[in-house]
Request: fold
Amino acid sequence: MSRENGSWSPSESTFGKAKQVLDATASSGDLYRNGLGMIASENIVSPMVQKIVASDLHGRYAEGLPGRRYYQGCDDFDTIESLGIDLAKSVFNAPFANIQSTSGTVSNIAALKALAKPGDKITAVSTADGGHISHARMGAVGLRDLDLSTYPWDEERMEPDIDGACALIRELEPKVSLIGQSVFLFPTPLREIADAAHEVGSTVMYDGAHVLGLIAGGVFQDPLREGADVMTGSSHKTFPGPQGGFLLSSSEDEKMHKRLNNAIFPGVCSSYHLHHVAGKVVALAEFEEYGQAYAQDIVKNAQSFAQALAAEGFDVLAESRNYTASHQVLTRHGGTDSGAGAKAADSLEKAGIITNMNMLPGDTKALSPSGLRLGVQELTRVGMGTNEMQEVAALYARVLLHNENPSAVKKDVQTLKSDFQIIRYCFNESQVSGYPL
Reply:
């Protein structure tokens, strides 16, 4: 570092490291701008949310709740968060909402902190059957030192075996009966499970991370009316906001509200990324206006894509149920633990199609699974419809079934994507201009 004209100038080597970050960031943007982003846990944010997330709020603190802060300078953020709480209650039809969580997993840790003590029993979906890692001993359940038992699984229907799940709950009388998955094709028959849980005094927790936008859009299921006492979720999957989480409850009990709020702060969050919270609030406002249409189009596209893949000759799971009722499609590419899913994902990336390998029922090795988990929410967000889903399925077939050179297919991927560069289901850029943040 040297000092020139009264200011410090970085050395070539240190600036070079920062430039590598700029170059890699730009390259990542190009990858998704010119390719097909089909990872089921991702989405893109609107121009207004982008602007909010890049604002001065990124470096500020506001511990506590609106009107009860541990820092000065929070009056404006109190306005933002109060508006967001009201919007979340409206969008999710929930008596209680906390929008501070920094992720879906953090929401899960907070909910488990509020609902159970170390050593308490919990039931959940196994990760081998599509449960999220936070529902396992390796994740939030283990962090809270809970005694985990997993539901029997109905592979054909891709959901918990309802009779078996209810019997397990009645036998164990768990403190928390957790429902929800990372692989989430269909609504869970929640009423039956909730009835069994409430019969033995168990609290029902629903992890809606993947399907939260579909729930809010009224096209999946309505957990808070079907027996869930608490619902957690992510703000950046089918709900198209910045990365973060939600914590919601059907309870009218002020004591429960206090437990949930305290579980977030001081439980699992100190400062909670105010720029992302403000971005969530804008995303909630956009969802209130456009969310129902977006959710409907996501499900239409997922079903169309699954049908097109099957017609191309792919092994698409849950054929007997028309493949999917969510944003996700599951495909099998080889035998159990064969690693065929990993190979397929790598070949598709070379063609500009970004997916993720995923364990399917029977797989035991997370890094060499047999399947892919595919999501259409990002393609829907940029305006693709059912016709484009047929084209995308044909591109998959060219790479994985007909063994075309991925580089040749990539040119057609880029041509297709070039017509879909505008983010939709949101306020437009002209409405954002004029606000220097």
User: Anything to note?
Assistant: The longest strand covers residues 240-249.
